[in-house]
Structure formats: structure tokens, C-alpha cells
Here is the input.
Amino acid sequence: TDVRQLTFGGENAEAYWAPDGRSLSFQTTRPPYACDQIFSLPVDGSAPTLLSTGKGKTTCAYIYPDGKRFLYASTHLGSPDCPAPPDRSHGYVWAIDGTYEIFARDFAGGELAQLTKNEAYDAEATICPLDGSIVFTSSRDGDLELYRMDADGQNVVRLTNAPGYDGGAFFSRDCKQIVYRASRPTGGDLEDYQGLLARNLVRPSKLELWIADMTPEGARDARQVTDIGAASFAPYFFPDGKRILFSTNYGDPKGREFDIWAIDTDGTDLERITWSSGFDGFPIFSPDGKQLAFSSNRNQGKPGETDVYVATWTDAPNVATEARPADRYAADVAWLADDARDGRGVGTAGNEAAAAFIEQRFRTLGLEPAGNDGGYRQEFDVTVALASGTTTALSLDGNPVPGDAFAPLSFSKSASVTGKIVFAGYGIVAKDKNRDDYAGIDAKGKIVLVRRFVPPGDGFKDADERRYSDLRYKAFTAREHGAVAVLVVDLPELATGVPMPDEAPLPKLSAEFAGDAGLVIAAVKRETAQGLLTGKHQASLTVELNAEHRKSTNVVGRLKSSNPQVRPGAMVVGAHFDHLGHGGSNSLSPGSDEIHNGADDNASGTAALLEAAKLLAARRGELREDVIFVAFSGEERGLLGSTAFTRNPPAGLDLKSVRAMLNMDMVGRLRDNKLAILGGGSAEEWPSIADPLCIARGLLCTTSGDGYGPSDQTPFYAAGIPILHLFTGTHDDYHRPSDDSARINATGGATIAALAADLTLKAAEVEKLTLRAVPEPAPRGDVRSFGASLGTIPDYAGPGEGKSGVLLAGVRPGGAAEKAGMQRGDILIGLLGREIGDINDFMFLLQQAKPGQKAKAIVLRQGKRVELDVVFGESRRM
Here is the structure.
């Protein structure tokens, strides 16, 4: 509102505010100058004042935070004359003049300080409003990249490293981010870009906006904000740093009309701000955020004139936003990752609400029910809680222990034992640390008392501390020494005079740890146990654990092809929608009971699933096969949903008819447009299918790897189905409360959803996908091993309630298990002469084994006991 014109006639643009908000620096071509010079322009409309030398051509003036100095780029050292105009025989191009250098000067006059000095293009400089550091564009390393330097031109650091033009950067007000324009040409476009750059030209016809975080080491986590296929430039942060103003010709088929638009930093809520014919650009907020300076050729006196304007900024609801993919994607992530979903833990109301939401969306998108009983649901049982029964009791030397002084552990055997108590220190046997707490102790048939955690000092750190303080490990070790029960107590051994730390709370029962360690185990309080370390004591321990089961569900929909040349079979596209609830054992914020919203893991994949379904529904006439969309639950509890799907496919789906499975897990943090396509080695055809599609979407994809990994594609690959897993990488928020929707790259997520649709269409066109059994990788150099490798793929859903052992979902080609004759469906019940109760026992035994060691393995195969000879391999893998 209140638009005021400050210049009249000539070419006037790039007006940037002074820190006090009273004036602007801008570049202008006006008599007597034949090309742009830098002037200061008072906001009150009085006459501008020349700041530059009047020689050469200048651009991009910016004022330092103290208001006493300014900088700009100029060609005057190359020649006092104006440079020749760019060669427009190449179309509309900008000149990249290597004589541009960046200079600084006091407003009061004085010597002109040269901040850059080379034969490359150095220009487009802007300043951090806090410390005066400078971000600028340069061709010094052979490409147009962004750089940062100190206020005096020292300590230059390169910020971007991708082929293409990076320029026009601005800092956010807190200087923690930069926003800039960039091109990312590929194929023939890259050749065109590089050929023009060799002629000191650049074609600005397609520029998108990017954001990167600024750190002392440089820029990181660059992510694309716009994906509108237009010329977008001059981006500037809103005062709160959550939104961006910019100029673009988006929406004009001829590409001639440039207007000011706004967009959220996650790529959502695109809004047109100006509607004048011609050009509106270079929008810059005043320091107080109340005014907007911009350049426009509205009200021009004659063609070619552009003037500087100032307007009052008035916030108002955006009523003109179109339903763009990024907006849909962000809205779905926000709903799924809202606190109201309570972390979407398996068996919770929040998880059920998410399932209902997805089911309704499937229905709205036109997907047919493809679950069980004619609906969208495929239910399966999960253990959601453990409770201690009424018979649970502990007595010491015949004296009952109060119920609040001890607690059974989640993986205890439900049984009663009576026996002598023997003390075994921390219950650790670690040959590599020359420690054996069972040395000289006869634990057979006894109740072993052990300390919790690990000994103080530097002997057990990080991974060792986690491993040896694991109560499940202590139970396994006690069982290996013949114990019938274990009592654990937080009673560290401390040097004289060292105060005793506060006692850790007794562990709570948790369905995540449910299992049977093969012996009875409980934790006791310090006051109860400290008298048991010496002398002869007897204990009677009864543990009764009752599991509560509930139904969780996959949500399954079928998109029917309308292609006359449709073939039998189907593609499966999936993503899991469950997360950790309020944390638990899988949280990387130990002890936190905050809501773990799991925006990236995996509301991001679920939102991409819905967006891909929408895109493919609009293209069902192109599909050569039907597409089954599956939202899995129970992934965080060990691939429960995807395992249930592959073990017992919904009625009407023959798993052998599934051509391929495409999984999206953690696709919400696209950075530098780099996408990992895992499982690229699961079919011979994947690279030739995926790589061109990635290039077309502007993604830098790495397509490689076998089909195994800790996500829902694994049961499908184990079932003999080629897979792909789209993944944007890990980050510090993984499995923490901080994984929230505000950190999602919505533009990136929507782009990946579009790629998923492309991959599904293209894979369905191929006559056949050739399944590849990828050999087990060789050890990666001098990497410390946590034991030996057997090359098995455990089915983490287990062999079934009440059954012991480790069910094998598959074996790795070339691994020890395959060589020994193990097969998918075997239940591994013995190894190294020991019984295997569950996956935990298996892991502990592998940690004890050595590469090259020979051993016997016992499996149950179709109910029959089979003994196999194995030779352990070298790898971290099972």
C-alpha cells in the first residue's frame, strides 16, 4: 500500500536500504553517465548523490551495518569506459565481465579499498547486518559460485560447489541463512551453460531459489525452495526469516512479465504480490520491516525506463494460493506430525488417527480398497504393553521384599526360582579388556547379583558402554554361565571419598523389550541389595508378565490402470506412517518422554506416498500395471507391517505378481538435491530407468546397493521382489523430538514424490525387471568389527509368539550362511554350541565369534532340525 515513486526517468534498480532506513543505495544509468553508476537515494524523495567513481560500470551496492561505509562492484580498473553489451546473438544473456571487482569506501570520502583482486567476475555482493561479512558471486574457480569473506575482504571461503549459476545472495537478519538464485543445468543444458560461460555469458532463463545454512565452516544443507521452471531472482527474506520475496516471470507463458511473489522457506504458500504489466523486481524490506523498496517500469515515461519505488508493507491473508504439490505435501506432513497425533506410536490413538486419515485420502484419490475383507485395512497383532502379574514376588532369606523395591524386567522369563545368591561384579566378560567378572564364580543353578551400567573410568566408553551396560547382555552372560536368575542393582564401586551418585530409577516394563531371555530377571533397589554382596544369602523370585495385544494396521489401496494395454501384475509403492510415540528404547534422546513427531521419519514418506498416488491417478491411462499403495505401520517395531504384508498378502494379491516395490522412508530433508536410491542393484534395469528420470527432475541421484536395509523394502526383497528405497539421508534430528515439520523441505519432498510416480510408470513399462542377488559387500578397509559375519537377514517380526530362535527373511549371496546352506524361512536356534532364544542372543554370539572361525549352526526347517557347518566371514553384517 501507499506506493511512492522515488526516481523519474532513466534506468534505476537494485535499491538497497541503509541501516537507518533513511536512504537507499541504487544503481542508475542517467546523464552524463552511459552505464550504471552507484548513487545514494534519500527516502524523502530529494536528489540522489553519486557514490561511485563515475567510471566503468557498477552494480550491487550495499551499505555496511555501521552506516559509514558501502561496497559495490565496478569494472573501472579494466577500463574507464562502459563495457560492450553482451552478444545477444545467443539470445537473452547476461554478461559476466571478468573486470568486475568489489570495492568499499566511506561515505565521507577517502581511499577506495579494493576487496577482491583477480581476473574473474567478482560482484553481486551483500552484507550480513550483524558482523559485516560479505557474500558474493565469483567465477574465480571456473564456475559461477557463491563465496563469503570478512568485511575487509579477508578469509574468503567458497560456499557452493555445484555446476551452474549461483548468485544474488542475501543474508537472513540473523545471518544464519542465505537465500540465492541458482541454475542446475544437466545434459545439453549444462553444455550450453558451460559454452556460454566460456564466452563470459550466462542465460538466466531458468533460475530457482535456494536456501543454505551458514556455519563458521561455510554453507551447509542447501535446499531448493522453488520448483517453478521460471526465471526467479532477487530473493530477500521477510523480517522473521520464514518467508521470501522474489521476482519471477512465473505464470507468463511468454516469459516477459516479471512480478513480485512470496513463498515460505519450505517451498509452500506461493503468493503473487504485484500485478503490474512489465517488470517488478528487487523487493527489499526496510530495516524496521514496515516498508518495501522495489524497482518497476510501471508509470514509465518512455520504454526502457525503470524506477525505484517505496511502499508500506501490510500483512494480509494469502487468498490466491493455488494447490501446488509442495503445499499439499507440507500440509500432509504437518497433519501427520502434529502433536495431536502423539507421535503415532504403534497401538496408540494417534497411530489409528493417522491410519484413518490415510484411508480417507486413499478413498478421495480414487484408490480402490485392497486390504482384507473388502476394505482398506490389513490388520496384524502387536504387543503394546507389559504388566506384572499378581504372583510376581521377591523374598530374600525368607523375608518378602516390598513391591516398590524391585521390578521385573521386560525380557524376563515368567517363572519361579529359588537359589543361592552369588555376586558377579558388573556381570561383564570382555576378553579385549582383560575383564571377566565370572572368573572363579560358580553361577550354575544360582541367582546372580550384578551391578548396573559399567565400571567408572575410561575403560568403557561410547559403543562399549552401550554394549556392556545393556541389561539384556548381562542376562545373556549370566545364562551362559548357568545362572537361573539375575538380580541387578545400581550400586557402583567407587574410590574412597567419592560420593555415591543418585540411584537410577528401576526400569519400567516396556513392550519394545518384550521377550524371553531364558531366565528370570529383576532389578532391585540399592537399599535392598547392598547387603547381599558378601556372605551367604538365598532368594526366591517369581516373575509373571502379561502381554497386552492390540491390532495395528496397514492401509492398502489399489490404483486401477485404464490403459487398454494393461498387463497382469502390480507395482507396490509404500511408506510407513508409525513413529516412536513419546520415545522409548529407539529414541536418541535417552530418558525423554516428549512427543517424537517423526516429521521426516516418516510423515515425509507418507506424504510422498499420497502425492505420488495423486499424480499417478491423473495418469492412470499411461499405467501398464495396477499400482498397490501401502501405508505400513509397525516399521519402528521391526518391520511388522511390511512383514505381515509379505507373509500374508491381502486377498486378491499374489506376491509373485508384484513386479517391484518402491519404498519412501525419510525423504523430507533433500539437501543439495542429492537423493540416495538404495536397492539400485536389486534389478539389472534400475540404473537405466532411474538415472534419466533423476536428471529430468533436477536430482543428483546415487543409485546403488542391495535390497536390504532397516526399512519396509527388506521383506519384499527377501521375498524375491526387486526394490528401490528413496532416502534423503540421516540428520541430527533422527529419532529425536526435534524431528518436526518446520524442518521439512516441502519442495524437495514433492519433487521426490513426482520421481516416485515417474519410476512407477517407467518400471511398469519394462518387459521384465531382472532380480539380482547382490553379493555380500567386502569389509570396508580397516573398519573395527563388532564380531563376525554370518550373512543372514533376520526377520525382526520373529518366528511367532511362544517360539524361540531367529527367523531368517533371507541370506546374503556369497555370505557364510548361504555357503552353509541356510535358506529363507529357516529358524536359527543354535550357534557355537549355544541356544538362541531371540535376535538378541544371536547378536551377542556374533560379537563373540571371529572371522574364519568354524562352528555348528542348528536350524529348524519345516519343523525338522538341521545341523549345518558354517565358517564366519568378515563384516559388520549378520
Summary: Residues 778-785 have pLDDT under 50 and may be disordered. The chain has 13 helices and 51 strands. The CA atoms of residues 385 and 511 lie 5 Å apart.
